[in-house]
Write a structure and sequence with these properties.
elongated, Arc Repressor Mutant, subunit A
Length: about 150
Amino acid sequence: MFIVTAQDPRLQELVLLRKVRDRIDREYREPLDVAALARGVHLSAGHLSRAFRAAFGESPYSYLMTRRIERAMALLRRGDMSVTEVCFEVGCTSLGTFSTRFSELVGMSPSQYRKVAAEDGQGIPNCLAKAVMRPIRNREAAAGPSD
């Protein structure tokens, strides 16, 4: 039988990883990098990347970009900001990188999404839109729903 104690180093590491994930969720607009995130929990950047991927299935950078793209999707659905304004609002510093990553995650460019999403989100309350319209990586979409 496997027993986890409060002093278990694996549990302590999971607590640190959760702190990193929470920080990314809170500060996604800030210029975060893996080294800064690792310093915040007193781990090396390499160890943080490996442990984060093992715990959450993606690298800290990938998780950060997914959060930024989720927020960008919400702003683009509103329709009152340009793609460039949205890019900078969510913390990206390069429109090209933002557009490329957006296209990878969503399957279409930000400008295409803005046109399509204005109609797609009608009638969905904002509290549900995030869950329903969450970005799905193309390779996850190809695999289909997991039941």
